[in-house]
TrEMBL record:
Residues 7-237 form the ABC transporter domain. The chain crosses the membrane at residues 490-516, 542-564, 576-596, 602-621, 663-684. It comes from Psylliodes chrysocephalus. InterPro entries: AAA+_ATPase, ABC2_TM, ABC2_TM_bact-type, ABC_transporter-like_ATP-bd, ABC_transporter-like_CS, P-loop_NTPase. This is Uncharacterized protein. The keyword Calcium does not apply. Residues 458-687 form the ABC transmembrane type-2 domain. Pfam families: ABC2_membrane_3, ABC_tran. GO terms for molecular function: ABC-type transporter activity; ATP binding; ATP hydrolysis activity.
Length: 688
C-alpha cells in the first residue's frame, strides 16, 4: 500500500471547538497522479491539507504521507519531498521575488546555482514580477505566483496546493495546469490540488468531492461524468450533494470501503512531529533563516527606528524629566512685621552686644531674603485668610506667615534657651502651611524651607558669634555609598529599576511581536513543512534579537553614564551584563507570551496588562519593604525585583559577584529565562 499511495487518509476527525470539521474523513492519492479536491467553501479542504502537512493536529485517524507518518523523520517529511503551497501566500513582505524563491531553495538545501537555474525557468513560466520587487508591493495574483514558484523550486515528490490558481487569468491557469500534467508524467510527481474552478479538474486522474467534512465520492472525472450522465463536474457535484442531503449514499466507490479492505490501521492521534526533529539544527537551513530574519529586520525601516530609538528616548525622557529641581512654586507670604522688604539689606540686622546676647533687626525681611530661590515664587497676601483662600483656589502651594514683632520675639527666644514663655515661643515661630495634595511638591517645599531656615539661622548666629552646635539638633546623619553624586537621590533610587524595566519589556515586546508576525504571515508553518525545525526558527530569531539586545543595552548605558554622566561606584561591565541578562529574560517572556497569544492584540493585552503590576512589585517605585508580607514574597520571586536590587548594589556600593546580593540578580534572570523557554517549547509541542 505504501508504494501505491502518496497520501492515504483513514477515518480522520478534526474538531475546532465544538465543530467537527473533518468527520471520519478518508481519502487516497495514488503516486504519480493528480488529485483534485473539490467542495464548497468551508467544507474542510484547507483543514484536510493542513492535517496532511502536519500544521494541524487531528483528533483521530491515520494519515500516511509518502509511506510514513508526517514527522517520523524517515521520509524527509516534513522536508524536501513535499512542496506545500498554503491558501495564504505565507511569504515575508520584506522579501523580494528572488529572495522568496531562494529562501525556500536554501531551506531545501539546494545549491545557489541550481536554485538560480530553476528560478529562471519558473520566472519565465509563471511570468513573475521583476526579481527585485518587494512582495509587499506585488499584487495578490503576483504574490500567489511567487508562492507557487517557491513550492515548485525543489521539484518535490508530492505537491500539495491549496487554490493555486485563484485570481489568475485563464491563460496563466492553463499554463500552470499544463506544468502539473507535465511533471506528473515526466517526474512521477503526485499532486493534490484544491480549486474553486471545478471544471479545471476535468482532466485530472481523480477528483474527490467533499461536503461538510466528508468525502462524497472519489473517482476519475470521466467515470463520474459517465455514471451520472452529467455534462459537467459541477452537475456531478450537485447530484452528489442532493443524494447526500437525502441520505442516499453514492454507489460510486467510496474510499471508506476501499481503505477498510486494504489495510487495518489502528486509530491513534496523528503526531505531526517528534522531539528529536524539533531539537535538530541544520547549518544551511539555519543560515537561510538568519538571512530571512535579517532581511525582515533591516528592510523594515520604521521597525529599526523604533527598536533602536526607544532605549534612548525612554532613558532620555527619564533622566531629563525626573529628579530635576522643582521651580517657580507659588507660595503666599504674609509678613505682619514689615509690609515692604524691597529695600532690605542684611547689614546690621544681627549685632552682638554681649558674649551671650545679640540685637536683631528686621529679621522677617532677612528670613524672606533667604526664601529667594528658583523653587519659590513669592506672592504677597495682606492677611492669612486671603492666603488660605489662595491655597483653596489653587493659586499657591503653601503659606509662610511671620507675626507682628517677629524680630523682637525671635531675639527673646535666643536670650534664654530655657525660656518657657509660650507667647515668646509662639510668636517667634515662622508658621508654614503646605498643600500636601501634591506630595512631591509639598515635600520639596518642606525640604527647601527647612534648609533655608537653617542657612538663615546659621548666618545670623554666626554674626552674633554664637556656637552653632549649641543651636543645632543633637543629631548628625552621614550617608554611606552616595559618593559626591550631584544628582537627586530620587534619580539614584529609580535608575536601576528604569534601566532594567526598559530592557526587559523591550525584549519582551520585540520578541513577541516578531514571532507572532512570523506565525501569522504563515512563514513559520510553511517553513516547518519545508523541514525547518521549531528549534531552528526559535534560535535564528534569538540570535538576531540577542544582537539587538546588546545594542539597546549599550545605548542605555551610554546615555546614562556618558551623556548624562551619572556617577557610579561599581563595575560598568557588570551593570551592563545585568541589564543585558534582563533583556534576554524579557525575550524569553516575550516568546512565552507569543506562544499563549493567538494574535498581536492578545499579546499586547498580556504585555500591557502585566506591565504595571510587575513594575509596582519590582520595588523601584516604592520599596518592597513597604509591601504586605505576601506581596513582598511574590515581589522577590519576580525576575525584575532582585535584579534591580542587585544593580543598585553594584551601582552605588561597588559590590561584585562575590556578594550573593549581586549574584542573585543574575541567577533569577537565568532561572526565569530557562523557565519561560522550556514552558514555551512545551506549549508549542502541545499545540502542534
Ligand atoms: N482555526 C480554526 N478555528 C476554528 N474554526 C476553524 C479554524 N480553521 C477553520 N475553521 C472552520 O472549519 C471549517 C472548514 O474550514 P476550511 O478552511 O478547511 O474550509 P475550506 O473548505 O478550505 O474553505 P475555502 O474553500 O473557503 O477555503 C470552516 O467552517 C472554518 O470556519
Amino acid at each position: 500500500m505504501d508504494d501505491k499511495y502518496a497520501v492515504f487518509i483513514k477515518d480522520v476527525t478534526k474538531i475546532y471547538g465544538k465543530q467537527a470539521v473533518l468527520k471520519k474523513m478518508c481519502m487516497s492519492v495514488e503516486r504519480g497522479t493528480i488529485y483534485g479536491l473539490l467542495g464548497a467553501s468551508g467544507c474542510g479542504k484547507t483543514t484536510l491539507l493542513k492535517s496532511v502537512v502536519g500544521t494541524t493536529k487531528v483528533e483521530k485517524g491515520e494519515i500516511r504521507v509518502l509511506g510514513g507518518r508526517p514527522g517520523d523523520g524517515k521520509y524527509a517529511f516534513p522536508g524536501p519531498k513535499v512542496g506545500y503551497m498554503p491558501q495564504d501566500t505565507a511569504l515575508c513582505g520584506e522579501f523580494t521575488v528572488r529572495d522568496a524563491v531562494f529562501y525556500f531553495g536554501r531551506i531545501f538545501r539546494m545549491t545557489d546555482d541550481l536554485i538560480l537555474e530553476r528560478y529562471n525557468n519558473l520566472h519565465q513560466m509563471l511570468e513573475l514580477p521583476p526579481h527585485d520587487r518587494y512582495l509587499r508591493n506585488c499584487s495578490g495574483g503576483e504574490q500567489r505566483r511567487v508562492s507557487l514558484a517557491a513550492t515548485l523550486i525543489h521539484k518535490p515528490e508530492l505537491l500539495i496546493m491549496d487554490e493555486p490558481t485563484v485570481g489568475l487569468d485563464p491563460v496563466m491557469r492553463e499554463k500552470i495546469w499544463n506544468h502539473l500534467y507535465e511533471i506528473t508524467r515526466s517526474e512521477k510527481t503526485s499532486v493534490i490540488i484544491t480549486t474553486h474552478y471545478v471544471e479545471e479538474c476535468r482532466n485530472v486522474d481523480t477528483v474527490g468531492f467533499m461536503r461538510k467534512g466528508r468525502l462524497l465520492a472519489e473517482e476519475s472525472p470521466k467515470l463520474l461524468l459517465d455514471t451520472y450522465r452529467a455534462e459537467t463536474l459541477e452537475q456531478v457535484f450537485l447530484i452528489l450533494a442532493q443524494n447526500d442531503v437525502n441520505l442516499k449514499r453514492s454507489s460510486i466507490s467510496v474510499l471508506e470501503n476501499n481503505a477498510q479492505n486494504t489495510i487495518q490501521v489502528e486509530q491513534r492521534r496523528t503526531n505531526c512531529g517528534t522531539w528529536k526533529r524539533r531539537f535538530t539544527v541544520d547549518k544551511r537551513r539555519f543560515r537561510a533563516l538568519i538571512d530571512k530574519n535579517w532581511k525582515q529586520f533591516y528592510r523594515n525601516i520604521t521597525g529599526i527606528f523604533f527598536l533602536l530609538s526607544f532605549p534612548v528616548m525612554e532613558i532620555g525622557a527619564f533622566l531629563s524629566s525626573v529628579g530635576g529641581d522643582v521651580r517657580n512654586i507659588p507660595v503666599g507670604i504674609i509678613n505682619n512685621e514689615i509690609r515692604d522688604c524691597s529695600n532690605f539689606t542684611s547689614n546690621g540686622t544681627a549685632i552682638p552686644y554681649d558674649y551671650f546676647y545679640c540685637h536683631f533687626h528686621n529679621m522677617s525681611c532677612r528670613f524672606l531674603s533667604y526664601v529667594d530661590d528658583p523653587m519659590i515664587q513669592k506672592m504677597y497676601y495682606p492677611t492669612l485668610e486671603d492666603a488660605m483662600l489662595g491655597v483653596k483656589n489653587g493659586e499657591i502651594a503653601g503659606i509662610i506667615h511671620l507675626s507682628q514683632n517677629f524680630t523682637y520675639f525671635f531675639e527673646k527666644r535666643f536670650e534664654d534657651l530655657r525660656n518657657e514663655n509660650s507667647e515668646i515661643l509662639d510668636l517667634s515661630q515662622i508658621k508654614i502651611w503646605l498643600d500636601m495634595s501634591n506630595y512631591q511638591i509639598g515635600s520639596s517645599l518642606k525640604y527647601k524651607l527647612v534648609q533655608k531656615y537653617n542657612d538663615f539661622q546659621d548666618a545670623v548666629l554666626t554674626e552674633c558669634g554664637f556656637d552653632l552646635k549649641l543651636y543645632h539638633e543633637p543629631l548628625r546623619i552621614d550617608n554611606f555609598y552616595v559618593g559626591s553624586n550631584k544628582h537627586e537621590p530620587f534619580i539614584i533610587f529609580m535608575l536601576p529599576g528604569i534601566l532594567i524595566t526598559i530592557q526587559f519589556f523591550l525584549g519582551a515586546v520585540m520578541t513577541s511581536q516578531i514571532i507572532i508576525t512570523d506565525r501569522h504571515d504563515g512563514v513559520w508553518d510553511r517553513s516547518i513543512v519545508a523541514g525547518v525545525t521549531s528549534m531552528e526558527i526559535t534560535l535564528s530569531h534569538f540570535i538576531l534579537q540577542l544582537a539587538l539586545c546588546v545594542i539597546q543595552t549599550i545605548e542605555l548605558m551610554f546615555c546614562t553614564f556618558v551623556l548624562y554622566q551619572l556617577e557610579y561606584i561599581g563595575s560598568l561591565s557588570l551593570m551592563f551584563l545585568l541589564v543585558f541578562s534582563q533583556g534576554v529574560c524579557g525575550m524569553a517572556y516575550g516568546f512565552f507570551v507569543s506562544v499563549i497569544s493567538t494574535d498581536h492584540t492578545m499579546a499586547n493585552v498580556v504585555l500591557t496588562g502585566l506591565y504595571l503590576p510587575v513594575n509596582l512589585l519590582s520595588g523601584w517605585m516604592w520599596p518592597v519593604e513597604g509591601m504586605v508580607y505576601g506581596l513582598r514574597v511574590l515581589a522577590r520571586c519576580l525576575p525584575l525585583t532582585v535584579a534591580i536590587e542587585s544593580f543598585r548594589n553594584i551601582f552605588k556600593k561597588g559590590w561584585d559577584l562575590s556578594y550573593i546580593q549581586v549574584l542573585d540578580g543574575f541567577l533569577i534572570g537565568i532561572v526565569w529565562t530557562i523557565f519561560f523557554g522550556l514552558l514555551s517549547v512545551y506549549l508549542i509541542s502541545k499545540k502542534r
